[in-house]
Amino acid sequence: MSGRFGWWEDLRTDHADLRAALAAASRRTRDVDEDVGVVPPLSLPQSDLLPVTAAMGVPVGGPYLRSHARGWEVAPGRTLDARHFLGRLHELTDIVAEVMPGAERLMVHVSGPWTFGASVEYHGHPLCFDRPAFRDVALSLGEGVREFCDAVGASVVHVHERRLGEVVSRLQGATEFETMQVDREVAVNVERRFLDQIRGDGARSVVLDSGVGWPEVVHTGADAFVVDELTDGVAGMIDAGSQVAWRVGDDRTSEEIAHSVIRTWRQWTFDSAVPEPQIDLVAVGDGVLTPTAAAELARTVRGAAALLHSN
């Protein structure tokens, strides 16, 4: 277990440059008065997760991407899109080394292998339809993410795997007649291999954000799981020893978020002795936020985490 995180951000802002975006994220997360009981992860500035994750894999043989009318596709060689995102990663690495050397609990956000494979096209079809190509790309992405995290000193990775449920139930290809379905055990094994890769020597914590509530998801080996709702299934995950974080937006106040967690917690029954409350919070932004909107959302979720800590 990685221990508690308290809260963290999952959002994008419209800052003009990475240095300003990182400084603003630090002000929202670290330069604050609220006490949430732990040092929360500081999320590095986000961009489009698919090309950013691909760019992390390029140095170790990963795919070059190019944009097209339907989104992103694997390109046969270097592209202007890939060059842009590679440049962005190099710039971010330099800025972190300059202004945040040795900073505690830096968090990197990446796309998971199934979401990447379902969202990026390869020869006109989702990449994961081609099993050998998907396997090779997934391995490259895992290695590339680990190397990037090593370079910036990130100790936490938030893996966005929101299309996992679709891959296991029914993923549609280029036409409505082209579909695929992956066995849950296979999907979990691929995910576990990816998480093991990016964990490195074991000191790095990995958070899985899949949007699914199957019991099997805990076998991915993630240190924490992001959930959409506080269901009885989540109570079972906590009872079994898993750390859980709840996605919250800007539609509630700090008090409403904290009261909802406490009320739900007291309704649950645990087989083991579990102190209360043991739920972290994730501030989820809708689209690209202005700096003011990001600050307001962070203040709300940070305040709720502080209330839970002091309860």
Automatic annotation (TrEMBL):
InterPro entries from the UniProt entry: UROD/MetE-like_sf
Protein's recorded name: Methionine synthase
